[in-house]
Structure formats: C-alpha cells, structure tokens
Amino acid sequence: MEALVLFGKGLFIGLAIAAPIGPMGALCIQRTLARGFWAGVAGGLGTALADLTFATGAAVGFAVFKDLVERIAVPLGLIGGAFLMGLAWNGWPRGQGGGGAGEPAAARAPEARSLWRTTLVTYGLTITNPPSILLFAAIFAGLGLAQTGSGLAIVALVAGVFLGSIGWWAFLSGLVAALHHRLPPAFALWTARVSSLTMAGFGLWAFASIF
After folding, report:
1. Residue 110 backbone dihedrals phi, psi, to 5 degrees
2. Residue among 40, 198, 197, 185 nearest 104 (CA)
3. 148 membership: H or E segment, kind and range
4. Residue 144 falls in which region: left (phi positive, over 0), alpha (psi -120 to 50) or beta
C-alpha cells in the first residue's frame, strides 16, 4: 500500500516538474516541429532519465545528495549554461532550404543514432542544472519523502517520477506533431527563434546566478 501511494506521488511530482514550459519544453517543441514526434520524445526521454537520476539520489541519500550538489553547483552551472548557449546558437534558424525564404526544411524522420544522441545531449543538459537537482531535494523534504523506508517504496517513488515526466513529454510531442500541419508555415520558424532565445536567456541566467 505504501509503495502504491508513493508511486502516485512520484507520478504527480514527475508531471508537475516536467510540465512548465522552460528551455526543455521549448527545445522539445522545436525538435518535434523540425524532426517529428520521435525526436521530441527522444529529447523528453533524456530529461525524464535525468529526473529519474535526481529522484533516486534524493530518495536514497537525501542529506548527502543535497550537500554534494551544493558543493558542485558552480561547475555544474557553468557547464549547463554553456550547454544552453551552444544549443541556442545551433538551434537558431539560418534560412535552410524549405517552402519559402527563411522557412525551415520539411521535417524528416531521424535515424536511430540521431535519436540516441538527442537523448544523451538532453540528459547531459538537464543533469547539469543545479536548480532542478535541488528542486527535487526540496520537494522530497517538503512532502516528507526524504526517507521512504523500504527499497520497494523507493523504487515505486522514482518509477512514478520517471513515468510522470516521460508521459508529459510524449503528450507534448504528440500534440505538437498532430497540430504541425494545421499551423502556418512561419510557425516553425518563429518557434525555433523563440526556443533559441529562451535557451540563451536561461544560459545567461545560469552564468549570472553563479557570479
């Protein structure tokens, strides 16, 4: 019974943390528009795996986990900020071929190797974000989940977090993919621009919060 309750709480936590549209949400939408549904899901899987890592660390060794993160917050912030700035630069549309001047090319189905690379890049980007790591620690502490008891309870909690997170990314990718052809041609172009500016803004914020 305890494991089932913790699974439900983990599901809600994973969904609540994933749902706000920040740099990862903007990146997911951009990838789905440019490369299709599975590209968006692949990026979401990277974020969900990072959430699983955070949740496991916070549930298994709450005090040690929180102390370690606070000690390495500066290098993590630098790496995460650089990641975001790099993605912003690479993601800015530069008028590749397409239906008209300045329009992005039509989405093409990505290869499996490209999907795995997307997952790894997104995992690396999410895992180097100290605020996200500390957010899990704070939520677990606030809900009294820092010490969950049995191993089964811990597994149920972190599994719920993972499924809640990946469920949101699959829903968002599916929604964007379904609406893609109903949107004006310029929508993908402006989404790419807004996504790049959003990531650049969060990258600058990561640097500013350190210094």
Report:
1. -75, 155
2. 185
3. none
4. left
